[in-house]
Specification:
The chain is an all-alpha fold. It folds into two domains: 150 residues, no CATH class; 120 residues, no CATH class. Strands 1-2-3 form a three-stranded antiparallel sheet. Strand 1 and strand 2 form a beta hairpin. The longest helix is centred in the C-terminal third of the chain and has 22 residues. It is globular, with a radius of gyration of 19 Å.
Length: 271
């Protein structure tokens, strides 16, 4: 069992709350769902650069990697993943081993695609194929480290709201999938750069926007609906030149998996 998560949860929740921990089987199930969401579970998608983006999207969680000199409006996570791997004894390709935190060596999507079959990208792709379990552990670590930051700077009423909504989702069927996936997908919500017109769309904003007290599929549905509202607002406030409306259907499809997987587990186990 992954005990550090329980400790992180207990730091956030009221003394009377009992948040569950998460086992390896459930964690791997969550990783498989994230990989399906990001890559349709295709290894060829582990090294991607989406059209219209200023960064590569790598690994089962499509971790962001910026070229040198980028403004980095969204939180970068791939260098931290490489450092995480190196700390755990993974042999990185020679061009990464000397400095796992180096910037993305491809300056833009065109150069990245042109190098698709190069030795460097082939080595990177193979590394990501072979380290899926470690990438899963990295996602969990990111989630654990994110939790204490959510309450920073909030007043007591706001803290109560975040605790209550986080707890009801975490204790619901596949609620941990929804929480971990959303942090990996759209961030913690605490990065001041991840705002359009001073409005964020991360986990913090989703929890702030939720209402209700019940636990179960309805709590996961409430989370999914709140996330939809935050992402819809993001699109409405986004710079027109980014054309973010094109991504909204795919984002909504991903949010729908939270409710579907929750219902499936409830049916299987009677939770």
């Amino acid at each position: 069992m992954v005990k550090p998560l329980l400790l992180a949860l207990l730091l956030l929740l009221p003394l009377s709350a009992q948040a569950r921990d998460i086992g390896e089987a459930e964690l791997q199930q969550i990783a498989g769902l994230v990989f399906q969401n990001e890559c349709a579970a295709k290894d060829s998608c582990l090294t991607s650069w989406n059209e219209g983006e200023a960064f590569a999207s790598l690994g089962i969680g499509h971790f962001i990697w910026y070229p040198a000199g980028s403004e980095k409006p969204f939180s970068e996570s791939f260098p931290a993943l490489l450092a995480f791997m190196a700390q755990r004894g993974v042999q990185l390709p020679g061009w990464l081993e000397a400095d796992p935190t180096r910037p993305n060596p491809w300056s833009d999507r065109q150069h990245f695609i042109a190098a698709s079959h190069s030795a460097s990208l082939s080595q990177l792709r193979q590394l990501l194929i072979e380290t899926k379990p470690l990438q899963t552990q990295f996602m969990l670590q990111r989630f654990e480290q994110a939790l204490p930051t959510l309450l920073a700077g909030l007043n007591s009423a706001q803290q109560k709201q975040i605790r209550q909504q986080f707890e009801r989702v975490a204790k619901s069927p596949m609620g941990m999938y929804a929480l971990i996936d959303y942090v990996n997908f759209k961030g913690e919500g605490s990065n001041p750069k991840e705002r359009y017109q001073n409005k964020g769309w991360g986990l913090l904003q989703v929890l702030e926007n939720m209402q209700g007290n019940d636990v179960g599929v309805s709590a996961v549905k409430s989370f999914s609906e709140s996330a939809d509202q935050m992402l819809t607002r993001r699109v409405e406030f986004s710079p027109p030149e980014r054309n973010e409306l094109r991504w909204l259907p795919g984002w909504r499809k991903r949010l729908a998996t939270y409710v579907r997987e929750s219902q499936k587990l409830l049916k299987q186990t009677g939770m």
